[in-house]
Design a protein that fits this description.
The chain has 289 residues and is α+β, with helices and mostly antiparallel strands. Helix 6 packs across helix 8 and helix 7 crosses helix 8.
Length: 289
């Protein structure tokens, strides 16, 4: 049986959160954030009382980053664990020496280590470009954060698990890039993204992301003109539609049979967010066409 985490007890009803205070805010950050309030899944293994106590203590510097290029903060201290995405969507784009690129989408809950060297080393010349697709809030898991959670392995152990989950997701994406048939590949890709970022509505599964054809090509391991042709064919079949406001896609029908059964179940069981309509739909060229 695990020891009780060394956080202050919290027996009184929880009131409004006070602003986190913890020394000076690092340059390039916009303030501090209660990390466990922003990402409550980090405390899922804790008893409710311990989770409530920890949520009021554990804080980290936070950046709010508008869509566009992102310059990650310097690691500085080797004790810094990484950056935790709290809201929004990031793009990690790996560039090869010949101009080819592969992209990865990152969202809430993902842990990234943007200061790590490129994996190609001296053998293959690569570089990673970071950008924000949808406005993001990013927390720096720095030394004070590490000290705060060091007495609670139930929290600390979730962070390497997040990295492992991200590696598994990349395995799926890598396998998808080698799948034959570009139309089917694009359809499966959109459903994979919908499982992570979409929501179910009466009109279909909404994927509210400004995914350009170039970005989709980099995710799918294809060329942009080929992706444009494949998406046009899927639209003609009525399988997908382009959303104009907000930009994105609607996926109609059932998830493709190529998806694992567990993923198909998660997609079809997602609930609709209250107060949101189905949006306007057009059969135009789609984002970035």
């Amino acid at each position: 049986m695990s020891a009780t985490p060394a956080f202050p007890s919290q027996t009184a009803p929880r009131g409004p959160r006070q602003r986190p205070r913890r020394g000076s805010i690092p340059a390039g950050f916009d303030g501090m954030v209660h990390v466990l309030d922003a990402d409550p899944e980090l405390t899922e293994a804790l008893p409710p009382e311990a989770a409530a106590a920890a949520a009021g203590v554990v804080a980290a510097p936070v950046q709010v980053v508008a869509p566009g290029p992102w310059s990650p903060p310097d690691r500085g201290d080797p004790a810094t664990l990484g950056c935790l995405v709290l809201e929004g969507t990031l793009i990690a784009r790996t560039q090869l020496w010949n101009g080819a690129a592969a992209a990865e989408l990152l969202g809430p809950g993902d842990v990234v280590l943007p200061w790590m060297p490129s994996p190609g080393g001296a053998t293959v010349s690569t570089g990673i470009e970071w950008s924000v697709l949808q406005e993001a809030r990013i927390a720096l898991l720095d030394r004070p954060f590490v000290v705060q959670v060091s007495s609670c392995p139930e929290i600390a152990s979730t962070l390497p698990a997040r990295l492992a989950h991200r590696a598994r997701a990349l395995d799926v994406l890598l396998a998808l890039r080698s799948a034959p048939g570009i139309e089917r590949r694009m359809l499966v890709l959109l459903w994979v993204l919908a499982e992570r970022f979409g929501k179910v509505t009466p009109a279909g599964v909404r994927l509210e992301m400004p995914l350009t054809h170039q970005l989709l090509a980099e995710l799918a391991g294809a060329r942009r003109p080929t992706v444009t042709t494949a998406l046009a064919q899927l639209r003609r079949q009525g399988i997908i539609e382009f959303l104009t406001e907000p930009r994105g896609w609607i996926l109609r029908g059932q998830p493709p049979s190529e998806l694992p059964p567990s993923l198909r179940v998660r997609v079809t069981r997602r609930t609709r967010r209250p107060g949101r309509d189905a949006g306007s739909v057009t059969t135009g060229g789609g984002p970035g066409a």
